[in-house]
Structure prediction request, 461 residues.
Amino acid sequence: MGMGWDLFRRKTVILPLLLSILFAVSPPCPGESSGQRLQPWAPMPDQARREGGTLRAGEALAALHDRSADALLELGVPEDPAVGLWRRRILAAGSGAVEQALVRGRIFRRFISDRLAHRGLPQELIYLPVLESHYRVRAVSRSGATGLWQIMANTAAPLGLVTDRWVDERRDFWESTEGALKKLEENYGMFGDWDLALAAYNCGAGKLSRTIRSSGIRDFWRLREQGLLPPETAAYVPKFYALVSICSDPAAYGLDIDWQESPSFQGILLKRSLELALLAEEVGLSLSLMEEAHGELQTPITPPAVNTGYRLKVPAESVERVREVLADPQKELLRFTFHRIRSGDTFYGLAEYYDLSVALLMEANTGIEPHHLRIGKQLRIPVFSGRELRAEPILSFPDPDSFTARYTVAAGDTLWGISRGFGTTVEMLAWVNGRSLDALLKPGETLKVPMDSPVEQGETW
Prediction:
């Protein structure tokens, strides 16, 4: 124990000493305090806030709730050397990345702030996506974490986030925010401490719980100092604090942020599919705004509404106009090509060929029974911009000169049944005999059929 204790003592003395030396050689950035370290995440009294004990939140964030910036602050920024170190690293790398992230976040800022207030969570968590994704709704990490909140695939389902051929809700700012805040709330309930809750968000609650049980330590900073956390997690919380201090008061750190008004979104459940570009053009909405707000879409077309509705996210000032357009059946919000039904066609096969879902194909062709397709009838095939339009599949027709035999029609015969019996297509059989595809046959009449095709027993030549 003596050797182990001596090693531990030297590490706990030398590491802070090295960090303090590093901290001393670089002068504090604007807004940094040189006082003693605060207790991590401890909320400070309003009086202390007014005296400059913590950094002020941005005016735009405070305006969202019609409250002072002081009243919004719930997390005290620790004056730990690691926080100062990360603050200097971020600023030394250039302020452009932070500025761009905050500008990108303008679209989502009001919604996230409202959901934080609704759950009673610290408003400073609005800056967590700056650390996670730089506020890129389609960001994907090397490990596959996706979206503003960088949610892993194995975490998505427990949070109620769907991933299928139509959507990846990890990229849905609405659904992913609800999921991420739910996870953060659960972490805080489990650990009773926001620094541990954030650490668990990074490395997983299970891993952090095991670390706490094995070490007997429930303090993030002690776990970090003793090297008991994964390196990424050890840096994660100090880096977040550094970003909170910079983003909360960007002007103090030389950042020029244009705090444009953040849009307020409302959800509209769709009863039909649509292409975002066509709706944006019809209503006069910004297409780039709509594409960012619907980053979860795997295609420019919203999912079919046959079984469940999809929530369209619309700026509040445009909701009524969007509702009017959606209620107008004359407004075509999907582009279509057409396919004439032929023998052997099925909804499943056509959906596969045109790279659609059966549900969308059914939605585009209401009133047509998938199991009773009528040859010759036209189907509407949804298409969308930026995608190559596939032509109708080419059929291989037999040589019409081979239709030299005769077949006498019996009661109940159809062109489709006869064509199957003679190994040809209904289109070719109808064309050679001058018939339409839906023509009714009369018993006793004769049809030209291929000479070399097999004939089932009982058929008459």
In short: The chain has four domains: 21-253, 265-327, 335-383, 400-449. The CA atoms of residues 117 and 123 lie 7 Å apart. The first helix runs from residue 2 to 25.
